UniProtKB/TrEMBL annotation:
GO molecular function: hydrolase activity; metal ion binding
Ranges that cross the membrane: none
Name the record gives this protein: Zn-dependent exopeptidase-4
Entry binding sites for Mn(2+): C114, H116, E150, H181
Domain Peptidase M20 dimerisation: 203-299
Cofactor note: The Mn(2+) ion enhances activity.
Signal peptide from the UniProt entry: none
Length: 429
């Protein structure tokens, strides 16, 4: 039986999974606080006879291992964390949650603004499908739920906590690692891309120092807000004047914080910088330019001390294995037809997913196994088509991390399930 017939015969009724999705969307958890997601996943996997479930890996991470005879080992991964965003979708199941963020101990609104709740729900239905059709595949399936993707810490934490250590969590060594992400494309579509599919990302919290005092006597102070302002403006020239126009890079200052009131010049200012690049050499060049500019602006303003740098996250390049991607692409074309795009656009976002593969032990005694990462659409197809015809996609279709981002439940959920099942079956023969 081919993959399409298996999916059609064994895919469960997705109504309960739609309910799981709504519940997860209404009750999100910030990075390192994904308790409900982990509990939901563990309970579901334990109810499927044969799954060996192991929890609390690198925080709230967990795996479910299903051994089904001799064959390849495939890891399928879903991420579980939400974002500090106040939801504005107006949905009946919109999040109203607020949590104290463990990173800075500040209470924040919380929303699944990147679709990880859809990843969880579709992965649970995937596990059910593959559990039910074991007579049609051989090998070992590992269903992995990873926390803290948004801050690039989850995959590293699971590895550091002994994910593949036979004396600890004993995750079987994979032959391939698979992952997917819902995107603001038309629901029902899937996209693969060999080679580079997602950029690297580096984030920093930079504190620049001045000398505080009364706002009426600026001559007796050194204003860190002015220093920060000059840095922010000058950083806009890194990409426009130092990166080859044929290359690609993004430098974003997403947060500026200084002072408590308007009549006091603060003693320091903090800016948070995010950098995206698609080439290693460009990555180094851009990071060097940013450090140079920050240092120079501080010196030009007479800052009393060196700026303080804290690396808050670092995502690797996501580079799909060509052979694995070709295998999945062929299976997707057969299953999805012209709804599969085998040459999808390079993603602007970044992922820590590759670490689960690059840090896995291999059969040659080293590290690194093949991996493939793809996308599936989450926008109402009718809305997408109308916006496309009007040329208003950028305005009318909310993107990931937007307060308005909420995938239409169907056919998004069904597509996510089909894609992961078909991809897994292309290796579990």
């Amino acid at each position: 039986m081919d993959a399409t017939k298996v999916v059609e015969s064994f895919r469960p009724d997705l109504t309960p999974y739609e309910a799981i999705y709504r519940n997860l969307h209404a009750h999100p958890g910030l990075s390192l606080q994904e308790t409900l997601a982990a509990e939901t996943a563990a309970k579901h996997l334990r109810a499927l006879e044969g799954f060996d479930v192991r929890t609390n890996i690198g925080g709230t991470g967990l795996i479910g291992i299903l051994k089904n005879g001799e064959g390849k080992t495939v890891i399928v991964r879903a991420d579980t964390d939400a974002l500090p965003v106040e939801e504005l979708t107006g949905l009946e199941y919109a999040s109203k949650v607020r949590e104290v963020d463990v990173e800075d101990q500040i209470e924040k609104p919380v929303m699944h603004a990147c679709g990880h709740d859809m990843h969880i729900a579709s992965m649970l239905a995937t596990a059910t499908t593959l559990h039910g059709c074991q007579e049609h595949w051989k090998g070992t399936l590992v269903v992995l739920f990873q926390p803290n993707e948004e801050r690039a810490g989850g995959a590293k934490a699971m590895i550091a906590d002994g994910l593949y250590d036979p004396k600890k969590h004993a995750c079987p060594v994979p032959d391939v690692v698979l992952g997917q992400h819902v995107m603001p494309d038309a629901a029902g579509k899937v996209g693969t891309r060999p080679g580079l599919i997602a950029s690297a990302a580096d984030s920093f919290r930079v504190t620049v120092f001045g000398r505080g005092g009364h706002a009426s006597q600026p001559h007796r102070t050194i204003d860190p807000v002015v220093i920060a302002a000059h840095i922010i403006v000058r950083l806009q020239t890194v990409v426009s004047r130092e990166v080859d126009p044929r290359d690609s890079a993004v430098v974003t200052v997403g947060s500026v914080q200084a002072g408590m009131t308007e009549n006091i010049i603060a003693a320091f200012a903090t800016i948070k910088i995010n950098i995206r690049t698609v080439k290693p050499a460009t990555r180094e060049k851009v990071l060097s330019a940013i450090r140079r500019i920050v240092k120079a602006e501080c010196e030009a303003s007479g800052s009393p001390q060196e700026p303080e740098w804290v690396s808050t996250s670092s995502f690797p390049f996501t580079v799909n294995d060509n052979e694995a991607t070709a295998t999945i692409g062929e299976a997707f074309t057969k299953h999805f037809g012209d709804m599969h795009n085998p040459s999808s656009t390079l993603l602007g976002g970044s992922e820590d997913f590759p670490i689960l593969a690059t840090e896995a032990p291999n059969k040659q005694g080293g590290k690194g196994v093949p991996y493939c990462y793809w996308t599936f659409g989450g926008t109402d197809p009718t809305k997408w088509k109308a916006a496309e015809e009007k040329g208003t996609l950028e305005h009318d279709v909310p993107i990931n991390h937007s307060a308005y981002f909420a995938p239409v439940i169907q056919p998004t959920l069904g597509t996510g399930v089909d894609a992961m099942v078909v991809a897994a079956l292309s290796f579990l023969k």
